[in-house]
Amino acid sequence: MRVDPDDFVVVSHQDVTPSLSHSSPRYLAEINDAIERISDKLWAVNRKIHDNPELGYEEFIAHETLTTFMKSIDGWKVTPSAYGLKTAWVAVWDSGKKGPAISFNCEMDALEGIGHACGHNLIATASVSGALATAEVMKGNRLAGKVVLFGTPAEEGGGGKIKLLQAGAYKDHKVDLNLISHPGITRNHALTRTSAYMELRVEYFGREAHAAASPWLGINALDALITAYNGLSVLRQQTMPGDVIQGNITDGGSRPNIIHAYAAGNFVVRANTQARLDELVVKVRRCFEAGATATGATLKLAPGMAYADHVPNRPLGASYMRYFNALVSPSSPSQMIPADQDLDEMLGRSGASTDQGDVSYAMPSLSPGFAIVPGPQGNGPHSPDFTYASGTRDAFERALRVGKALAGTAMDVLTVDGLLEDVKRAWEDSIIGLSTP
Ligand SMILES: [Zn+2]
Ligand SMILES: [Zn+2]
C-alpha cells in the first residue's frame, strides 16, 4: 500500500485560525497551539528514543529522556522508576480542583535486533504531546481534574502495563480512563480490537532406554509432544474465526538411538476475546494431556505471558474521530476515520495483541491506530522497514496529530455533560457482554 506523503496536512500554528473556524471542535485551536509550541523539543525526544532502541524493562535512555523532559515542564510532578520497575515512571499535573482524572500510557520499548520496528517512539510522542496539551488547555480554561501520564515499559511480551495494574498504579491515581495509540501502515481508525493471547511452556518427562535393544523399557517424551501437536492440528479444524494456535518444538530428544526422556516446546493461543480464549485454552490443554496419556510421559504445562483483548470504547472513539478528522485536509478523504463506527471497528480489528488490552478490562481505554508512510519495502510493524518509517519527520508529525486528537478526546470528557458517564456505561456493557458465554 502506498500512501502519498502529500496527502497529509499538518495544521501549523499559522494556518489554524482561518482553517479551524466555526465547524472545528471547540478546543482544537488551543490544543494545536499548545503542541506546536513545543514540537521542536518533542522532535528531539522522539529522535533520541528512536535512535537508541532498548528492549523491555531496559528502556533506560528512554526513561531518562522522558522523565527529564517532563520535569522541565511547569506544574508536572514526575516520579521516575515507579512501582518497583526501574523504567516505569509517572507524571502528574493536577488542577487542584476535584474533577475527572484522564490518563495516558507512554510506551518505550523496541524489538531485538531491529530497533523501533513497532514505532513505540511515536506512541510516546503522541501520549506525551496529548497529555501536555490537555493540561495546558485545562489550565487556560480553569477546568477541574488532573492528567496522569504513565511511562509503561515492555509492551513487547513483557506485560509492563499488567505489572503496573497489579501494583495499583492506575487505582492509586484514581484514573477514570486511559488513552494511547499505535502506528501502522493501514487506515486511520479510532476503535481498536486486538486478540487475547496466552503463552504456554510445555514439557514432557519420559525415560531413556536403548532405542533398538530395549525400546519397551523407555517412555518417549517426544512422542508425547508429537501426539499433542497432531491433536492441536486436528483441533484447528473446529476452531472459531479469530482462534489461532501456534507452537514450536525447542527440545526433541538428544540422539536417535535413545528413547527421548525429555521434549519441550512453546505454544501461543489467541482468540477474539478473553472469554473465548479461556474456552480455547481448555481444549488446548486436553491435547497436551492426550499426549501424556498416550505415552505415559509426565506433562508439565506452565502458562507464560497473557494479554487480554483490547475492548474498544465507542463514546471515546466518536470524540477522537471528530478531532482527528478536523486535522485532516478535506482533499484527503482516505485519511479520514469513518463516522460509521461499525466500519471503524472493522478497520481496527487486529490479530495482534497488546497489554493495553488488560488496561481496557480495568477501565475505558482508547487506542486508535494511525497510518504512517511505509518504508521503501512497504512493510508494516515488526520489520526493519517500519523501523525506518517510524524515524521520519513525517511519521513524527502524524504522531503529533494523534496527540492533538487524544487531547481533544480528553477535553470532550472534561467538558461535555454526561460524556464520562456514557463512556463508563459503554465500558461496563462491553465487558459484561464479553464475559457472558
Ligand atoms: Zn509490536
Ligand atoms: Zn507496538
UniProtKB/TrEMBL annotation:
<dbReference type="InterPro" id="IPR036264">
    <property type="entry name" value="Bact_exopeptidase_dim_dom"/>
</dbReference>
<dbReference type="GO" id="GO:0016805">
    <property type="term" value="F:dipeptidase activity"/>
</dbReference>
<dbReference type="InterPro" id="IPR052030">
    <property type="entry name" value="Peptidase_M20/M20A_hydrolases"/>
</dbReference>
<dbReference type="Pfam" id="PF01546">
    <property type="entry name" value="Peptidase_M20"/>
</dbReference>
<dbReference type="InterPro" id="IPR002933">
    <property type="entry name" value="Peptidase_M20"/>
</dbReference>
<comment type="similarity">
    <text>Belongs to the peptidase M20A family.</text>
</comment>
<protein>
    <recommendedName>
        <fullName>Peptidase M20 domain-containing protein 2</fullName>
    </recommendedName>
</protein>
<dbReference type="InterPro" id="IPR017144">
    <property type="entry name" value="Xaa-Arg_dipeptidase"/>
</dbReference>
<dbReference type="InterPro" id="IPR017439">
    <property type="entry name" value="Amidohydrolase"/>
</dbReference>
